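Hello Y.,

Per our agreement to keep a running log of every chain we model this quarter, I'm adding this entry. I've kept the format consistent with earlier entries: sequence first, then predicted structure.
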Amino acid sequence: GRKRTWAIKEVIRGWANQKPGEVLTWIEESKGLVEERKILTRGELEQHLNDVFLRRARLDIDEAFTRYAQLDDPDLQAQAFSGLAQAVEDPDLRAALLTRLPEIPETQRGEALNRIGKTWAWDNPAEAARWIETVEAPLGSREQIDWNIFNAWRHSEPNAAGDWFAARSPEDSLSTRLNQIAANWPNRDYAAARAWLEKGEFGEVADEAVANMVSYQYAGRKKPEESLELAGMIVSEERRRSTLNHLFQWWTRVDGEAARTHLDSAALPEGDADYVRAQFGW
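Predicted structure for the entry above:
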């Protein structure tokens, strides 16, 4: 039953604390048995492997890498490296861990860098950012690595995180990155997110991000007057007017009188207020 399963897990954890190498061997040899008898699920096995490798790395990181290389199951190997990656939080282990990176198989290099970057970023995002700039990450992994670092960094230094994340973007991906910023920063600090976008002078490439922030302000936070001010930042007239149209469709259902009052005093680009009035017959 549940008590028996819990007891088995506790025994394994205690065993891993004392002799992680033996637990690793047991996990490798017992995968089918423990799953068949539902002693542990596959996911729980992988989590145990994560814990074992973290403990092993703290005891002897060279030995941990040797055992990692001996694993022949890609999923278990990935989970094992997740444990190794957590060692990056320890300054005494960090250099040794990074030195061994060339030993990671090419097929797993991107995921390995991602796990290190993500773990390190929650501990010291500025350091993680400086590190990843020195590493040649596989193209397909770079977006996720950069995002994980930004996502951790934005909680403590959102302006620095935004500057770094945008500057790291390939030119054809900047719009996507600005969208990611706009989707995650405003819910914590709308004023700071807006000021950062304005300061960046991104031009039309930021239009989609700004339009999404407009939608978030009126539909999510119920602050249409802020949405109206923000909409004026959209460079493309077509996109700006489409955004205004959606805003006022929502606003007129909620409070039509307030919508008209704010439109009359809004500092919008020339012709936009008249466009809205024509759309709604005002």
